[in-house]
Amino acid sequence: MFAIIGQRWRELVGFALLFRVLESLLFAPAAALAGKWLLGRTVLDSTALVSFLLSPRGLLALTLAAVTALSIRLIEHAGLSAIFFGAFDGRRVSSREALRLVWGHLLILVRVSARFVGVGLLTVLPLLAVAGGFAARLLSQHDVNYYLRLRPREFIAAAVVIGVIALLTAAVLLSLVVRWRWVVQVALFQKKGVSETFAESAALTRGRRWKLAACWPASCSFR
User: What is the pTM of this model?
Assistant: First the structure.
């Protein structure tokens, strides 16, 4: 891995810089405009912010923001993977070639991101429901700052319950991330549909998921 970085550092740095320019020129303004359109009003305090995030409009804004952010990261990961895999096969993939390859797979990468976010939202739905129930009951009496400052017993109890559910949710999400560790590479090089891409990644990670969960992502080779 480090040998390949040393051999292809120009291509890797070139793609990273090129992607950052495109991200700044295209993705960031689009995400900002979408967020402003969805919000539609000024959030004045923390209570209003929590209420907005727990509303249907707020959940839609969070979903679109999550899909956009994840798509950006997967696109970047796909370009770097193209350069690495070219090096594995003894080919030199330039930063522009990697960008063209990623552009040709843009739609499926966005669909993969949307599926990631959709499954993630279903996974965190119990946590959101519990947090929303506590928030509706507690915030109807006092604002967030009151509970953070005085920490009454009902606030501590709610925090403990939400914390336990959050830990369980995080464990499930981690298992899904490890299971789908190689969806980008499968989508990029095996040209499968979205469902087949996730299924293939699950098959490829079977028997090595503990190792994948323990290792740093950049050091986990696809091969």
Answer: 0.69
